[in-house]
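Dock 6-O-phosphono-beta-D-fructofuranose; give full complex structure.
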Amino acid sequence: MNAPRCDQTDAWAALKDHFNTHGRDFDLRKAFEFDDCRFEDLAIEAPDVFADLSKNRVDRSTLQHLIALARECRVEDRRDHMFAGDLANVTEGRAVLHVALRAPRGRGVFSDEVHEVLDAMLTYAEQIRDTTISGIRHVVNIGIGGSDLGPQMVVPALDAFALRELTLHFVSNVDGHDITPVLRDLDPAETLFIIASKTFTTQETMANAQVAKAWFLANGGTDITKHFVATTTNIVAAREFGITTTFGFWDWVGGRYSMWSSVGLPIALAIGADNFRALLTGAHMMDQHFVQAPLEKNLPIVLGLLDVWYRNFHGCASRSVAPYHQGLGRLPAYLQQLEMESNGKCVDLDGNSLPFATSPVVWGEPGTNGQHAYFQMLHQGTDLIPVEFILVKRPTHGLHDLHTKLLANGLAQAQALMLGKSTAQALTELAPTASAHLDARTVARHRTFPGNRPSTTLVLDELTPRSLGALIALYEHRVFVSGSLWGINSFDQWGVELGKALCGDLLPRLESGDEANLDGSTVGLLRRLRA
Ligand code: F6P
C-alpha cells in the first residue's frame, strides 16, 4: 500500500513546529490549572478499558496535530488492509490476520478454518480438564517467544478462573535449569506435554521436546500419542516427532500474535472453553473499537500516536509498564516481544534507513514491587520515561484492605510523577532519615522532585478473560499504529536470524575447539569456556 512515512508528511513538519513552540516546555501542572475539563477531555472509554491520558504532555492542539499525522500516513487505510487480509507482512509475503482468530463464527476472514480448529482445540481441552477421566494433573508447555509468552502471561493473570486440579508449567529456555526442576516432581502418567512451535524447528523448543520425550520414556511413560500434543503450522514435523494430536494454525498468524490460535491451548486447559471464548470476545470488541471509533477517541490510535510523540519529539528511549496486579507479572515480558520484536527496526518498508528512532525499550514490574526498586529513577533520574499504570478496580480475592492500599499506591505514584516537589516545599518538611549534620538546603535539594513526568493510567473494572483479551488486543493495535506511522514492517523479525545462524556455527566449535576465522573476543571466551 502506498502511504507516506511519518517524516515525509506536512503534519510531521507542523508537529516539529508545535513541539518547539508548545511541546518541549509543556507543563502538566499548569495544564490542569488552566483547564478544568482536562481529565474528561483526555479520557477514552474503550471496551473494558478506560484510559486517563490527562497526565500526558499533550493538550487538544497536540492531539489535533497527531491525528493529522495519522490521517496523512493513512493509518486507517493500512488498518483496513490488514483486516481485509492483504499482504501486510510485505517482507515475508504474508497476510496478518490474528484479528480473524477472534472474529465470531462467519464474520472474519478464513472463518470456517479458524472455527474448526478452535472447536476441536476447546473440545480437547475440556476432555483433559475432566481429570478423573483423562488422568492428567500437570501440563507442560514447551515453546519459546510467541509460543510461550502469551500463555505464560495469561494463565497466572486469570488464576481466579483456573481449574485447581490442573497445574500448568512453562518451559522455554534451552538452559537445562529451566526444564530440570519442572520434570523433577512429575509423573509421566499424569503429565501432558504441549510442544508449541509455529515452525516446529526452533532449536530451544526441539531440544526441550527431545528431553521431555526421553524423560517420559525413561520414567515408565508408554503412550507418547496420548501424552504429547503439538500446536504448530508444521503438522508434518510434529508427526515425525511422534505426535498424532496436533492443532494447527496458519502462516498469517505471527508468533507474537498467536495466543488466540491453538497456541492458546494451555490457556484453554487452565480456564476452560467458555472463558477462552470470552478472551477472544474481549479482543474482538477491541478490534471493533479500533475499526469503528473516531480517531480522536480511538484508544489504540491515540496511544500509538503518543508513543511517537514521546519517542521522536521528547526523545524518550523507554517506556515503563506498571501493572498494579500481581497476576500481570509477565505482562511486561509479553509486551517486550510484542513491541520490540515488531517495531525494533531501522529500515522502512522499502529498505531505506530511517532518520528517526523507532521502538522504545519496554520494561516494568508489577506495582507496588517496582516502587521499591527502580521508581527512584522514574521520579528523580535524568531520563524522561513515560509510565503506564494499569489499575484494576475490583480484585478477585476478598482482601479489600490490601486492594485499597494497592490502588492508593498506583494513584500516588502517577500523582507524584506529575506534581513533583519543589525545593521550597521540601525545605518546609522534615526529612526523618537525613543526617542532622547536613545543611537543610542541601537536603532539600536532594528531596526535590522535578515532576512534570508523564503517565497514562488504564483502568479495568475487573481482570476477567474478556477484559484481558481487550487489553492485549489494545496493545497489539497500538504497536501496529506506531509501526504504520514509522513506515516499517511490524510483522517480520529478521533481527533474530543472525544470532541463530552464528549459534549453528559455534555449536560444534564448543566441542572441537576450532577457532578458525573467529574474532579475538569470541576466541578468548571459547577458550575460557572449554578450559
Ligand atoms: O526467534 C524469534 C521467533 O521467531 C519469534 O518470533 C517466535 O515467536 C519464536 O521465535 C518461536 O518460534 P516458533 O513458534 O516457530 O518455535
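Observed: The chain has 22 helices and eleven strands.
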